[in-house]
């Protein structure tokens, strides 16, 4: 090497590179340094810019890979939830279904002692189902799968319905319920299923953590404008005379799997109900809070966007909860002269098939056909032309979705309403079924007798079968 010149390149105070010249025939000197000086800063900027661009590309690639990894994890989680939902709900369907049949049978009524046994089975099964629903609801919230359908709801009707639903639990715990929500003008904009879930959870907690001879008071919260966001809200306050929450544990109330010292106590629970309750309230643009004193009791407050009297209808017209007493009374004494309506039930699980057979046997207006797989369902549908098909989704061989698709393409069976009846309670599976256009509704297992009877009642009365898209835990 005959000569060498190195010029450092700085960006601010950071050394980012060196310009080097070697073996120049004319040699190197101070004049060469002066000649190159205007270009040195440009070279430094170009180097820094190139490095930043490469770093940005690497960062974007890492983001893309992280996003793809998260999507794969979400898909795996959804598949796991779908599988676990099906596997857990299938045996629960038989347990709770047959227990309901035993307790409600008019042809073979139980003795008081036997009815007590059945009540224990039902309570244990319902508790297990609530645990399954809590875990699934939490997973759906985390996965962003929770869907809401806001509509105007009357607080008085909803509060009374919820109080009626927990009346048996209150009697068993010797707790009195005082419902003071009677103002028919109070309406909130919320999802009916989810708001009922919120109120039921708070009422159940108020009863379970109460004392024998205690009380639960349900009070209205008047219309009030929130200073933080300007939204008008009203709602409910649920107060109990129970054990209360220690002051040093109140900050953990809405944490997941937090039992606040009751982990080893006699009260059943998962510790995620209040976390789910808060998530549901906040996703409906509401607020939730509480006051509590140890040994005296707790009061939980739920406020939701109000439907103002002079405001245009923003989420439908309020309709409240339709009473079902009339339908139940009609079923209590079926007439022998009623025409039997043919229903095809497609189910590969023998216990579930036997359960539906017994449900139909309790009625004089339904004749049940059973198919154990999709292929047999197609044959029986073409041969007998049933008025309704209840289709399990997870069938061996030809799936319920595939069988329904074929039935809808044949002129002879295209008009037959098909209700999906599945142990898969995930929102994604239900939405796919709804979007396919092949099903008139989607019911999940464990089945609720009232829902099945409501479908059969509509069939008997010649009324259109109302689409039902039930969510887990709804």
User: How large is the radius of gyration?
Assistant: 32 Å
Give the overall pLDDT as a whole number: 81
What's the CATH H-level homologous superfamily of the largest domain? Histidine kinase-like ATPase, C-terminal domain
Number of helices: 12
Query: What characteristic shape results from the CA principal axes?
Result: extended
Major beta sheet summary: 6 strands, parallel
According to DSSP, the number of beta strands is: 15
CATH topology of the largest domain: Heat Shock Protein 90
β-strand percent reads 15-25%
Q: Based on the structure given, which CATH architecture of the largest domain is correct?
A: 2-Layer Sandwich
Oligomer: single chain
Low-confidence stretches: 316-337
Order of helices and strands: EEHHEHHEEHEEHEEHEHEHEHEHEHE
What does this molecule look like?
The chain has 3 domains: 4-63, no CATH class; 150-305, Heat Shock Protein 90 (2-Layer Sandwich); 330-469, Response regulator (Rossmann fold), CATH 3.40.50. It has a 6-stranded parallel beta sheet with strand order 11-10-12-13-14-15, with helices on both faces. The chain has helices at 30-104, 112-143, 155-165, 167-172, 192-208, 273-283, 325-332, 350-361, 374-384, 400-409, 427-436, 449-461; strands spanning 4-11, 14-22, 150-154, 176-179, 187-191, 215-225, 232-240, 287-293, 297-305, 341-346, 366-371, 388-391, 418-422, 441-444, 468-469. Strand 13, helix 11 and strand 14 form a beta-alpha-beta unit. The protein has 474 residues and is of the alpha/beta class. The protein contains 12 helices and 15 strands. Helix 1 (30-104) packs antiparallel against helix 2, helix 1 crosses helix 8 (350-361) and helix 2 packs across helix 6.
